[in-house]
Amino acid sequence: MVCERWTTSDSFVKAGSLGYILAMTLREKVEALLPNWERWYPSLFDAASDLGIIRPDVCDPNSLLLTRRHAKVRQRAEDAHREKWGGKPQD
């Protein structure tokens, strides 16, 4: 099983003499490359994908599971519950 995560290239604009950096939204990036994108694409996501603004990044499916990413938090909560209310750890 293969999963995809979408990434975007950074596009920043320097604004004024103060040096603030403003990031362009996805819509602004698409409209800069293809002003009438809505005529050809059903969604902003499809247009951005075809224009190469966003691209899929193959990743390990297990890295996307909340149960794996938050295992330590869940374990600490279970330990705190056992400490307060008693009980045995579950295997």
Strand content: 15-25%
Q: What strand line-up does the widest sheet have?
A: 1-4
Distance between the termini: 28 Å
Report the average pLDDT across residues: 77
Radius of gyration: 22 Å
What's the domain count?
Answer: 2
Assembly of the depicted chains: single chain
Count of DSSP-assigned helices: 4
Overall SS class: alpha+beta
> Which term fits the overall shape?
rod-shaped
Major beta sheet, specifics?
A: 2 strands, antiparallel
Number of strands: 4
- What percentage of residues falls in helices of 4 or more residues? 25-40%
Spell out the helices and strands N to C. Answer: EEEHHEHH
Low-confidence stretches: 11-15
Give a short summary of the structure.
With 91 residues, this protein is α+β, with helices and mostly antiparallel strands. It has 4 helices and 4 strands; from the N terminus they run E-E-E-H-H-E-H-H.
Q: Overview of this structure, please?
A:
With 91 residues, the chain is α+β, with helices and mostly antiparallel strands. It folds into 2 domains: 1-59, no CATH class; 62-91. 38% of the residues lie in helices and 22% in strands. It is built from 4 helices and 4 strands; from the N terminus they run E-E-E-H-H-E-H-H. It has helices at residues 26-33, 44-51, 66-69, 71-85, and strands at 3-8, 12-15, 20-23, 54-59. The strands form 2 sheets. A two-stranded antiparallel ribbon has the order 1-4. A two-stranded antiparallel ribbon has the order 2-3. Helix 1 (26-33) packs across helix 2. The protein is rod-shaped and about 65 Å long.
